[in-house]
């Protein structure tokens, strides 16, 4: 893009500002996986995250919290909410365990 003189105005480095909620800082859990994502059977390692989606037509944000099984990349459980709360993640975990 630089060679052709193209510029994306939406994502100028000066215009982007990181504004993620930091929350309270507590203890960091030790890494039990140590980035070794090779497993021999299902339900050995699950990964999770909370992702924010902005939906312009509804003028709101949605938060997705899935659990992914490392063995076969299957989504075990997920929840969607309008707020990133502990209820979002706990509901997702409860659905996965049942």
Question: What labels would you give this structure?
Answer:
four-stranded antiparallel sheet; alpha+beta; 12% helix; 4 strands; 98 residues; single chain
In short:
By secondary structure, the protein is an alpha+beta fold.
Structure overview:
- With 98 residues, the protein is an alpha+beta fold.
- It has a domain at 46-97.
- The protein contains 1 helix and 4 strands, in the order E-E-E-E-H.
- It has one helix at 86-97, and strands at 46-48, 51-55, 60-69, 74-81.
- Strands 1, 2, 3 and 4 form a 4-stranded antiparallel sheet that branches.
- A hairpin with a 4-residue loop joins strand 3 (60-69) and strand 4.
- The longest helix has 12 residues, at 86-97.
- The chain is extended.
- The N and C termini lie far apart (49 Å).
- The model has no long low-confidence stretch (mean pLDDT 84).
